[in-house]
Design brief:
7% of the residues lie in helices and 49% in strands. By secondary structure, it is mainly beta. It comes from Caballeronia cordobensis (Burkholderia cordobensis).
């Protein structure tokens, strides 16, 4: 009899960015890519269009986390916003963990830089955690 394998839950993950490791992210997304379709008609072949693969495009990775005293991701964004020559692109990973905290899947992204930072929204009538967000533009993502 086959052993039942339950799917992994999406709330147990961590993010690594060149040495910055955080397990306290609220949300991580944007793990997708698409390939442009180039339609091409060949001479003498008037019935159908040929479809060829074009450029690969990657969506920005979006990260959201509860605001704290930790300013490392914000400082990285400020370096880029201020044109600091020391600002560096970074590689990173989004790691899916099982219920026991063991790594089950990993998506590695390359040459990322912070394209957008969003600060928290405030509401005196709410009872929510203050959330910061960062969008990372990158050049490639690979499931390892």
């Amino acid at each position: 009899m086959a052993t039942r394998k339950d799917p992994y839950v999406n709330f147990n993950f961590l993010v690594e960015i060149d040495g910055i490791v955080r397990a306290a992210f609220h949300e991580a997304g944007g793990l997708d890519s698409s390939i442009d379709v180039i339609e091409h008609r060949e001479g003498g072949e008037n019935i159908t269009m040929r479809k060829l693969p074009g450029q690969v495009k990657y969506s920005n990775i979006s990260l959201k986390w509860g605001m704290s005293d930790d300013l490392d991701l914000y400082a990285w964004h400020r370096q880029w916003a201020e044109g600091d020559p020391a600002a560096a692109r970074k590689n990173g990973s989004i790691v899916l963990l099982d219920r026991q905290g063991q790594e089950k899947a990993r998506w590695n992204f390359f040459n990322a830089w912070p394209a957008k930072w969003t600060g928290p929204s405030f509401n005196a009538e709410a009872n929510d955690v203050a959330i910061e967000a960062l969008e990372l533009a990158h050049e490639s993502i690979v499931r390892a």
